[in-house]
């Protein structure tokens, strides 16, 4: 797998590069945010280690732009530990967030964990669950069902990262990019209808799970 390291501090980038290569990952290094965004869009890696403060285009902007077209896993690296910055990073689609100074071994461990979680989608597809985005359909065991645009956005978001819990605000941001104001009940209503459609296709399994007090996640469970 190829890991993109977007970091403008040469020593940090070199250390991460060395540790990742020891784990037999291929790496691509970028020190300028604008160049990194262009190259990442042209040649998507399997995971991005993304510094927040970069020359050219900053990390939050890069994350936001990539999320418009891709669900590639993104782990943010930053010295800014403010709660607002941390939450904003996750709200716009980052999969994890590591504060500097950090242990390179911790970064490698996080990379492995995120890749395990995100590549679990392949196992899900092997279980005869397939999301056909271009056709706005979900197919389970060979039987398909049409989805509304909101249902498609919800399922696409959760399906891309099995096991990851999304709170209502995060889901709201994904399905309403124009930042319109809707209530939590609206999200709950859309999720309920989505779950009913999935249950009609497969009465034996649950796919979208409620996590009490936190939100929702996609996970295949019998």
Q: What structural category arises from helix and sheet content?
A: alpha/beta
Supply the CATH class of the largest domain.
Answer: Alpha Beta
Query: What does the largest sheet look like?
Result: 5 strands, parallel
Q: H/E series, N to C?
A: EHEHEHEHEHHEEEHHHEE
List the helices and strands and how they pair.
Blueprint: E1 2-6, H1 10-22, E2 26-30, H2 33-42, E3 47-51, H3 59-67, E4 74-78, H4 83-91, E5 96-99, H5 104-118, H6 120-126, E6 129-132, E7 137-140, E8 143-146, H7 149-159, H8 168-175, H9 184-201, E9 206-211, E10 215-221
Parallel strand pairs: 1-2, 1-3, 3-4, 4-5
Antiparallel strand pairs: 6-7, 7-8, 9-10
Fold and architecture overview:
It is a single chain. It contains 9 helices and 10 strands. The protein is about 45% helix and about 20% strand. It is an alpha/beta fold and about 220 residues long. The two termini are about 30 Å apart. The chain folds into 2 domains: about 1-120, Response regulator (Rossmann fold), CATH 3.40.50; about 120-220, Orthogonal Bundle (Arc Repressor Mutant, subunit A). A 5-stranded parallel β-sheet has the order 2-1-3-4-5, sandwiched between helices. A 3-stranded antiparallel β-sheet has the order 6-7-8. A two-stranded antiparallel ribbon has the order 9-10. Mean pLDDT is about 85; it is low at about 120-125. The chain has helices at about 10-20, 35-40, 60-65, 85-90, 105-120, 120-125, 150-160, 170-175, 185-200, and strands at about 1-5, 25-30, 45-50, 75-80, 95-100, 130, 135-140, 145, 205-210, 215-220.
């Amino acid at each position: 797998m190829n890991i993109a390291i977007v970091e403008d501090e040469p020593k940090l980038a070199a250390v991460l590069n060395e540790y990742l290569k020891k784990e037999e990952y291929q790496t691509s290094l970028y020190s300028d945010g604008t160049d990194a965004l262009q190259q990442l869009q042209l040649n998507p890696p399997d995971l991005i280690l993304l510094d927040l403060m970069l020359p050219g285009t900053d990390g939050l902007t890069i994350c936001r732009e990539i999320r418009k077209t891709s669900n590639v896993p993104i782990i943010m690296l930053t010295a800014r530990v403010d709660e607002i910055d941390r939450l904003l990073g996750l709200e716009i689609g980052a999969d994890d967030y590591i504060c500097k100074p950090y242990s390179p071994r911790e970064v490698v461990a996080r990379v492995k964990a995120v890749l395990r979680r995100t590549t679990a989608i392949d196992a899900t597809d092997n279980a005869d669950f397939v999301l056909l985005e271009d056709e706005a359909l979900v197919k389970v065991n060979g039987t398909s069902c049409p989805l509304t645009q909101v249902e498609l956005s919800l399922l696409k978001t959760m399906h891309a990262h099995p096991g990851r819990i999304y709170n209502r605000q995060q889901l709201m941001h994904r399905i309403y990019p124009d930042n319109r104001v809707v209530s939590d009940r609206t999200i709950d209503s859309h999720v309920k209808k989505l779950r009913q459609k999935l249950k009609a296709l497969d009465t034996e399994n649950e796919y979208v799970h409620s996590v009490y007090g936190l939100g929702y996640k996609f996970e295949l469970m019998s």
